[in-house]
Automatic annotation (TrEMBL), chains A, B:
It holds the Pfam family Rrf2. SUPFAM superfamilies: Winged helix' DNA-binding domain. This is Rrf2 family transcriptional regulator. PANTHER family: HTH-TYPE TRANSCRIPTIONAL REGULATOR YWGB-RELATED, WINGED HELIX-TURN-HELIX TRANSCRIPTIONAL REGULATOR, RRF2 FAMILY. InterPro entries: Tscrpt_reg_Rrf2, WH-like_DNA-bd_sf, WH_DNA-bd_sf. It comes from Streptomyces gibsoniae.
Amino acid sequence: MGANSRLTIATHALAWMALNERSGAELTTSEQIAGSVKTNPVVIRRLMSEMGKAGLISSQRGANAGWRLAKAPEAISLRDINDALGAEAAFAMHRNEPSAICPVARGIRPALAPVYARVDDAVSRELAATSLADVLRDTLGVDGA
Amino acid sequence: MGANSRLTIATHALAWMALNERSGAELTTSEQIAGSVKTNPVVIRRLMSEMGKAGLISSQRGANAGWRLAKAPEAISLRDINDALGAEAAFAMHRNEPSAICPVARGIRPALAPVYARVDDAVSRELAATSLADVLRDTLGVDGA
DNA sequence: TTTGAAGTAACAAAAATAGTTACAGTCGTT
DNA sequence: AACGACTGTAACTATTTTTGTTACTTCAAA
């Protein structure tokens, strides 16, 4: 798979929201975020919708609509974001069924499954160690601010 | 990206070779492996070519051609295979440059880069813990053999 | 010199992601 | 009650990546 930038875009969006709220804003719109990410607002709305279902953010509709964080930036980890996006495993099994006759072909998937599960666990653990607050701090700190 | 099955196919191929050699064979051909994986021999040859460049296997050309493992199955880890395939990072940055004006957009990539690097390290560590010999053992053990 | 397979280029097919357009649903404001 | 601004989605196109296929060249043993 091409490596996937969904986590990057989603984290960028939440970091923008966090900064916006810190500056006193109540709500953030998809258009504001799209301006920073330089993409189409619908792309942002799609990601936001998934994060809303996961309880990371909440939306307000009607006039004066937008999103707000549902948790403090310290309480949202990159793992939470990745899980919200329904991220798939790092490695996949064969796209097509291998030979039913060959013993290697029959046994290779059960043999690899636990290894791949451990890999995904390791990814989750690593992502869990970084919060949205960490990302925002490092993001703003780049300029020496 | 769709999750990528290249590591699965490459590992399947090497496991097949290891079993073939254990059964007394000197050489293994792409057609034999393709039969077990149920794919086109060229797909196998492409993967084998990359693993050959990484020194995991060696090829013999001419009549009576084929591949043989260049190391013992105990000395080849899934990490070696993954590295040989030039695996890309689990997560990618934005496909397009984000806004040059916005401080979040400017700082988010340097902030995420070390996190993503740690994730890739964790993946490598996890893959390094399993050898081709482990995979072959578990593969054949599935039937209780 | 014949032969079987590696090696590789070129291209088609399939799948996933990203980008775009369009429109219905919601709800303060006027 | 109508308006306006923005969410929520569906539908479609474009782009990128991976996989599958055909075809051809190179190689070395028999």
